[in-house]
Amino acid sequence: MKPLGSLLFFLFIGVQLNAQTKQWTLQECVAYALENNISVKQSQLDTEEADIEKLTAIGNFLPTINLGGSVSQSTGLSFNPITNNAQTTTFLSGTGNITVGYTLFDGLRNVRQAQRAEISQLASQYRLDKMKDDIALLVANTYLQVLLNKANLKALQSQNEVTQAQIDRTTQLVDAGVLPRGDLLEIQATNALDNQNIAVSENAVQISLISLAQLLLIKDYENFDIAEDDYEIISEEILDNSVSKIINNAKETRSEVKIAESNVSLAEKDIQIAKGAYLPTLSAFFGYDTRYSDASSFIQNLDQDNPFTIEEIGVVQETGQTVVGQVPNTISQEVGADPLFDQIYQNDGIGYGLRLSIPVLNGFQTKASVKRSKINLERSKFQLEQAELDLESNVYQAYVDAKGALKTYEAAKAALDSQELAYQYATDRYDVGLTNAFDFSQSKLRFDNATIELNRAKYDYIFKLKVLELYFGISATDLKF
User: Fold this and answer.
1) Which of 193, 131, 281, 235 has the alpha carbon at shortest distance from 462?
2) Comparison of pLDDT for 303 and 132, the residue scoring more
3) What residues does 328 pair with on adjacent strands?
4) Which helix (H) or strand (E) holds 231?
5) Residues 6+ apart with CB under 8 A from 263
6) Summary mean pLDDT of the chain
7) Could you tell me the pTM of the whole model?
8) What is the CA 52 to chain-centroid distance, rounded?
9) CA dist., res. 281 & res. 106, Å (int)
10) Which of 155, 327, 379, 399 is most buried as measured by Cβ atoms within 10 A of its Cβ?
11) How large is the average pLDDT for residues 205-212?
């Protein structure tokens, strides 16, 4: 048992270490979200409902077949279902039937319903695609926010190491009487501010990680972390396209417009279906039924010992003379029920025919339904027009945002280069005692802020490029980071 216990112990430790060291890449986060996100699952259920609607529409072309039957026990005076005679007894009886119906013509409503189901199925797929794009973009944005916070934290920690080194050097110079004690206090104050900013940055990292974990429906917040890859701006080719070209691609590929177009097609089919109620309905039917009873019956047989008797059969009106005749002498005899299968064949019957229904007046229900469908069509057309306008506006906004983010990013790089030179110059001057600690701290603060601003501008620019690529028709799962 000891070797087995040791094996299980080390397996458990290995699983725990693996859980703690798991670092999620952006691609893994997107894939996991698309598989587990609640909103995506709800959209998938909508597609399943559309599949059911299509199945129902196809089923309307099939005949209806129904089987029926009943079994009963009667006691007392009852009518025998076979002989239709009243008799006092106890008997078991049963009936069975099958009916078949088929709609030959219903104003083409079944055809229109099938066509509508096809469009509805396509629309649900468009909605699912849009939901996946939205979730993937949301995950990417949240992921990049974590990277931004981590990059800022690293920058602050790196600069604080420089501050710590300055504290050690300044302490030595103060002890040697080269610098005043106020310079040491200034550097220590800078260190305190660094530690405060680091604590705030660490909190921002943790909060953003929790937000990403919640988006992925991962509850183990403590062990959740992402791979700290240095995401660079891979491609800026999307900005080489004109905004009109991006808009045209968006109208051809984006799900928002396709959903609105599908709604217009659905409204048109609804009008055709509603108008079909004006036309007559022709259907065919066929029915088969049979019955069985275990009740005995009585039959009349000739008396073999005395087959005939002489009975008065009438009177001659003129003479009053009685007329007699020979009639069969019968006796009643009880017989049992025929076997089950014999009765099924003996007592069966069929019925078939056509049924025609011509609508004449139904309280204007059909007319009202057609009018409502026409209003819904107009509303869907307006929604399509609005969707196209919104998409065009969103693309313009995304294009301008990406261009603006590029300028901000380039300006932030230039500002950081300048602040880095200024900080290095201030460091050199401080090291030789040509500047005081306050001026050095201010230069360091400006350099830290420039580093953080460059990080923010970088990831903001990356995200805005991806938004523009998404509008250009690149799938969210194919976006490259």
Assistant:
1) 235
2) 132
3) 308
4) none
5) 123, 380, 383, 384
6) 83
7) 0.74
8) 14
9) 4
10) 399
11) 92
